[in-house]
Amino acid sequence: MVVNRLGRLLPGKGRWPLLAFRADNTLREPPMRVLPNGNLQRLESMSESGSAAGAVFHVSGEVHQYRGAQYLLIRNVIRKRSMDEF
To answer: How far apart, in Å, are the Cα atoms of 52 and each of 10, 61, 66, 74?
Structure first.
């Protein structure tokens, strides 16, 4: 499970979009492939729209593994707001 992690959507190589998590420490995590669903569609539309381009999101979901690769099924996504956006 991934619970309330900060991440940024990256253009995927091939058919899978990628989600890069912000590291909590000095260990870097590789980007994770994102499984298509309605929440991914919301995430893509929010990150492509105007001021939210390249935005950081709070993401929660389930991690699935298949043939050595990890995939994230997003269950919840909320855009992280900075204090000057209220």
So the answer is: 13, 21, 32, 19
Number of domains forming the structure of the chain? 1
pTM over 0.85: no
H or E stretch at 48: helix 38-48
Per-residue b or e along 56-84, where b marks 16 or more CB atoms closer than 10 Å to that residue's CB: bbebbbeeeeeeeeeebebeebeeeeeee
Separation of alpha carbons 69 and 85, rounded Å: 37
Residues 28-79 pLDDT 10s: 788 899 999 999 999 988 887 655 557 899 999 999 999 999 999 999 999 9
Asked if residue 34 is part of any domain, the answer here is yes
Query: Does the residue 86 lie in any domain?
Result: no
